[in-house]
Amino acid sequence: MLAGLAVVAAVVFAGTVGGGSAATLAAPQNTAQPSISGSTTEGSTLTADPGRWTNSPRSYSYQWLRCDANGNNCSPISGATGRRYRVTQADVGHHLRVTVTARNNDGTGTATSASSATVTTTRTGPTNTSAPTISGTPQEGLVLNADKGQWNGASPITYAYQWERCDAGGAGCLDVSGATGQSYTLGVADVAHTMRVRVTASNSRGSHAATSNQTDLVAPSKSGGAAISVSTISLPDRLIVDRVTFSPQPIRSHRAFVARFHVSDTRGFSIQGALVYALGLPYSWVRNAPEVATDGSGWATITMQPTAALPLKSGGSLVVFVRARKPGENLLAGVSTRRLVQASVSRP
Fold it and tell me: What is the DSSP string of 40-102?
């Protein structure tokens, strides 16, 4: 009888040991990798499928991972522990994975999904609904002010300004160095150009830029600002001799006198580099003088030498023919101009 009990005990012991080994192997084992469904676009919701498991898991837990652009170097996303995950701005440009942990009474098992597609976004920076504008008079020494226009987008939105100098036709625009404020004071370099301003609006989603229309041509200062180059003048604009002075005045001797001629264009801009020719009439009364280019304020200064034939009498006059032209153009064509002016002559 004792021998029989020993045999039974041995069988029970062997069954107990074998049972313990079987319990260890009863933890969930993954047989089909977890997967992710849904659109990988910012703002969309992704759903994790736990995959397939043996040994009848009683529950699943989830941890979403943010990975690099190649789907590697993954890190847990704080708080992202549900079966569903809403894609955020921080995920844009990254890949996502999810790790699933399956549990039953005998233990746990884990498995990680394949990498998702790259997360993209349809949300961009602010959008412009009304273009920026410029207020103020486009004249050297005066101030222009920019209005940013109207923008849509998530707050807060910040705005940056860049003033641009363009050619007379509104093309060839270049940034003005350092001109990044909402206001801009026009300088000599802006004369005979147009101006515009570029406004860049930025928020957490990105940035966009919008540009104003060009101003009218920037005029020189009324107090005697710099002239513009004659090379910029073309038809239908033309040159004009708009001011004349003689010194001395009246002419009282046969000594040389100085004639000064100011050249502008039909828009009122002083012109630098125009060639001015002056000839006394009748021809025998004054010797010929060479052409002179107008200076940086639009004036040409010519020394004229009367001959002994110039009559010096009270109430007399000397007629002077004046021509202003653009170098390289035909003397009788292009933007050139001609005018007769008169200097007073008197007795010594």
Answer: -BTT-EEEEE--EEES--SEEEEEEEEE-TTS-S-EEPTT--SSEEE--GGGTT-EEEEEEEE
Q: Say if residue 290 is preceded by a cis peptide, omega within 30 of 0.
A: no
Decide if pLDDT at 240 tops 90.
yes
pLDDT in tens, 61-70: 999 999 998 8
Domain identity same for 254 and 340? yes
Decide if 256 is inside a domain.
Answer: yes
What are the C-alpha distances in Å from 215 to residues 109, 135, 165, 192, 335?
71, 9, 10, 11, 24
pLDDT in tens, 133-191: 999 999 989 999 999 999 998 889 999 999 999 998 888 999 999 999 999 999 988 98
Number of domains in the chain: 3
Residue 243 β-bridge partners? 262
Residue 260: domain span: 228-345
Tokens of residue 323, six digits: 């021509």
**pLDDT at position 226, please?**
66
Residue 290 and residue 254 in one domain: yes
